[in-house]
Amino acid sequence: MIKINTNHIGDLPLPVNGTEESAILELPEDSGLTVNGKICYNLLATMTGMDLLVTGTARLDVIAECGVCLEQFPMELAVKDVCHLYENAEGQEINITEDIREDLLLALPLVLKCSPDCKGICAGCGVNLNTEKCSCGKKKKKAKSEPEKPDEPSPWDALSALKF
Ligand SMILES: [Zn+2]
Ligand SMILES: [Zn+2]
Predict the structure, then answer these.
(1) Of the ligands numbered here, which is closest to the C-alpha atom of 132?
(2) Alpha-carbon span 81 to 78, nearest angstrom
């Protein structure tokens, strides 16, 4: 748990740095994420009157599954603008774990993608188009061009022949 004892904060902001077990994230099994290491946080705790202001950053390495090609890829979950205010916190120990957890979960993109231009998987043959060339696409092209035989006799040929 990430706790801040406001009794330890003087006139200057108190640096609160450390790591936290990533289990606090309680990621659902279908999130497509595998947690890789611990949560790192670099926070500053400041008293503003009776209130505690917590600012800073938090980050975590994860392995994500691309929603387009289904490959696993490393990704950083980073919160660059942690900012929480706890009112009437003077003289108390404040548990900020839940807020940091929410910050990290909100940093998750809606669509997990291994790269912005991920080509995905071929619907025909199932190859990962980022790493392999699709073979079924080639076949389709061939099949399409085959019926277009340019030397088919046209009825107009006979007509033009009659003209002379
Ligand atoms: Zn991908
Ligand atoms: Zn294919």
Answers:
(1) 2
(2) 9
Q: Length of the chain, please?
A: 164
Q: Strands, E, within the chain: which ranges?
A: 3-5, 14-20, 33-35, 39-48, 51-65, 72-86, 93-95
Question: What's the CA-to-centroid distance between 129 and ligand 1, angstroms?
Answer: 9
Q: How far is the CA of 111 from the centre of ligand 1 (A)?
A: 11
pLDDT digits (tens, 9 = 90+) for 60-77: 999 999 999 999 999 999
Question: Which token pair is 127?
Answer: 């190859």
Q: So where are the chain's domains?
A: 3-106
Nearest residue to 2 via CA among 46, 28, 39 = 39
pTM of the model: 0.74
**Euclidean distance between CA atoms 84 and 153, whole angstroms:** 80
